[in-house]
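> forwarded from #structure-qc
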């Protein structure tokens, strides 16, 4: 069997060499093989049909999932939260979108006409925007990173990880603040390769999580990213304080609020997901925001930790949200520096209807 290089295939098919590499890594070119650091392709191979416009529909059997692992992600509580959805969702708002497990479920199964998502983490918001607007370019960049990372030994992987972490921090601190494709790719790369998928910054705002130990982490899930891009097509994406969502919210809006959790122990607050702290004072202010949008007629569900996990006499949220319905649900705490610190705990779902 005769072969041609990725460059030759690119010239033959009228696409970029990077795009050819992506198609090879997605196993969409039969009998393409990696030799050294390059792809070789049968000369008889035909250009694959462009599937970059794939869109998710309710009847699609493919499973859609968050594109990152996020502390406090709600995938495991999806059924409990889904049980609280209004019968019909015309407008939807998430002031703290995070990993977006609930967002994706609402978009895929309810098709609201208007959607606003927000988060104070600028790098996270940038990544959502890039997935929405430039998913093909993002996939190409991630595919190259995955291909390079998978081929390296442990020592070289660490060198690549630290180099990418330094580059991400440079873009984060010294960039002009505008949407940045490379920064989004690095954000996903670091999330998939760092310890426990944790996002943590120091007081200078620098991402400082060490590399994790994974055999071949899925850095580029092209199909899932395209599905998410399709769902985000008509979604408004904002970066700022949650209170800025108030004008969007009205009596037709379902609001899911998943703020930074109140630590359940004195030593649990070892992470910071942005440079902005969220203590008890901020929890009280958030409750006032919930009161305010509740008077508009919005249907609201709030998540938070249950202080009674560590102190049965701690009624902070029971007192704070005494005018609302509070339900305790079981969740497994996954992100902890010690395996003994992971296990089933209660979390709170607070509802105004």
């Amino acid at each position: 069997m005769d072969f041609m290089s990725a460059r030759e295939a690119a010239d033959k098919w009228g696409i970029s060499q990077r795009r050819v590499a992506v198609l090879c890594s997605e196993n969409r070119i039969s009998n393409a093989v990696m030799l050294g650091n390059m792809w070789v392709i049968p000369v008889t191979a035909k250009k694959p049909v462009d599937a970059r416009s794939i869109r998710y529909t309710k009847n699609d059997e493919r499973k859609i999932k968050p594109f990152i692992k996020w502390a406090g992600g709600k995938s495991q509580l999806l059924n409990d939260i889904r049980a609280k959805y209004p019968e019909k969702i015309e407008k939807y708002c998430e002031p703290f979108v995070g990993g977006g497990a609930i967002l994706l479920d609402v978009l895929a199964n309810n098709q609201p006409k208007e959607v606003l998502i927000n988060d104070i983490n600028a790098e996270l918001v940038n990544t959502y925007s890039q997935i929405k607007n430039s998913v093909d370019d993002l996939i190409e960049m991630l595919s190259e990173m995955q291909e390079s990372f998978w081929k390296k030994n442990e020592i070289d992987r660490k060198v690549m990880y630290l180099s990418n972490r330094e580059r991400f921090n440079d873009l984060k601190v010294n960039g002009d603040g505008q949407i940045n494709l490379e920064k989004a790719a690095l954000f996903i790369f670091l999330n998939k390769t760092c310890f426990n998928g944790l996002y943590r910054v120091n007081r200078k705002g620098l991402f400082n999580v060490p590399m994790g130990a994974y055999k071949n982490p899925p850095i580029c899930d092209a199909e899932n990213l395209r599905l998410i891009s399709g769902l985000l097509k008509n979604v408004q994406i904002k970066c700022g304080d949650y209170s800025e969502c108030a004008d969007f919210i009205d009596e037709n809006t379902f609001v899911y609020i998943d703020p930074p959790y109140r630590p359940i122990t004195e030593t649990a607050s070892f992470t910071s997901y942005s440079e902005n702290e969220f203590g008890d004072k901020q929890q009280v202010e958030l409750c006032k925001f919930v009161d305010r949008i509740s008077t508009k007629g919005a249907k609201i569900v709030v998540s938070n930790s249950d202080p009674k996990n560590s102190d049965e006499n701690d009624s902070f949220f029971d007192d704070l949200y005494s005018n609302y319905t509070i339900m305790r649900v079981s969740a497994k705490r996954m992100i902890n520096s010690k395996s003994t610190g992971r296990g089933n705990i209660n979390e709170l779902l607070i509802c105004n209807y």
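QC bot note: Confidence is low (pLDDT under 50) at residues 51-62, 267-271, 335-342. The two ends are 67 Å apart (CA to CA).
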